[in-house]
Amino acid sequence: MRTVIIIAALCALLSPGAQAKDAPPDFSGIWTWFGSGPGRADPTAGWPKEPPFTKEAQEKVAAYRALVAPRGDTPGGHCVGTGMPGSMLGSGGYPMEIIQRPGQITVIYEAHTEIRRIYIGAPQVDPADQVPSRNGYSTGRWQGDTLVVETAFLKEAVDQAAAHSEDAKVVERYRLGKDEKGEKLLTAELTLTDPRFYTRPVTVTKKWRPLANGRMMLYECSEPEWEDHLEALRKEAAPK
Amino acid sequence: MKKPILLLWSALLFGLVLPAAAHHSAAQFNFQTPVSVKGVIKEFRMANPHMRLVLAVEDTKGARDIEFEGHSLNNLYRRGWRKDMVKVGETLTISIAPRKDGGDGGYVLSVKTADGKEF
Question: Model pTM?
Answer without folding.
Answer: 0.83
